[in-house]
Amino acid sequence: MGKFIRLKKGFTINLAGKAAPKVVETEQPETFVIKPTDFYGTYMPKPVVKEGDTVKAGTPLFHDKKHEQVLYTAPVSGEIVEIKRGEKRKLLEIKILADKKVEYASFNKYSVSDIANLPVAELKNQLLSSGVWPMIVQRPFGVVADPSVTPKAIHISAFDTHPLAPDYAVLYKGQDQFFQVGVDILKRLTSGAVHVNTHSTSEISTVFSQVKGAEVNKFSGPHPAGCVGVQIHHLDPINKGQVVWTISPAGVIQIGKLFLNGIYDASKLVAVVGSEVKNPQYYKTYTGASVKKFIEGNLTQDHVRVISGNPLTGTAIGKDGHLGFFDQQISVLPEGDYSEFIGWITPGERKLSFHRAIGLFSFLSPGKERVVDTNTHGEPRAFVQTGIFEQVTPMDVLPTYLLKSILAEDIDEMEALGIYEVIEEDLALCEFVDVSKHKVQEILREGIELIQHS
Question: Which of 66, 143, 275, 409 could lock 17 by a disulfide, CB 3.0 to 4.6 Å apart?
Answer without folding.
Answer: 275
